Amino acid sequence: MSTPIKLNRTKSMRSILQNSMDEVVSAQSALNMLPEPIEPINQDSKPGYLSQTDAWAQHSMEHLRNIFAWQRIQQDKFNLLEDTLFQLYKVGKMNSETLNTLLEILKGPLL
Which residues contact 20 (CB under 8 A, 6 or more apart)? Predict the structure, then answer.
């Protein structure tokens, strides 16, 4: 079917989030297709997991793996942002009120 995407760590947090959402839509679409059985390599083998026996389930798994990879990159960027905020506070470039406000935005509910 398709090959896993080549991840780009230089993408913005916003585009990484968009890529993840696009992958979710693709994974859902793949699971909403009619079954497409995969012939077993060895005829004597027992049926395996769904992703080993159906092409669309296998394709969906590729998208899910990409989602996890994008989320790992997003977490790395989030941690870097958080560390940078603390460093700015530590060297006196930001006061504690601003630091706390920004941390609330980062860690709090979105709405």
Answer: 67, 70, 71, 74
Distance in angstroms (rounded) separating the CA atoms of residues 66 and 82? 24
Query: Is residue 33 a contact partner of residue 56, using CB atoms and an 8 Å limit?
Result: yes
Q: What is the mean pLDDT of residues 70-94?
A: 93
Give the Cα separation of 30 and 66 in Å (integer). Answer: 14
Q: Are 102 and 69 in contact (CB under 8 A)?
A: no
β-pair partners for 37: 54
- What tokens appear for 86 in the block? 């603390």
Q: Which strand (E) or helix (H) includes residue 68?
A: helix 55-90
The pLDDT tens digits for 86-99 are 999 999 999 999 99
13-24 pLDDT, tens digit each: 889 899 999 999
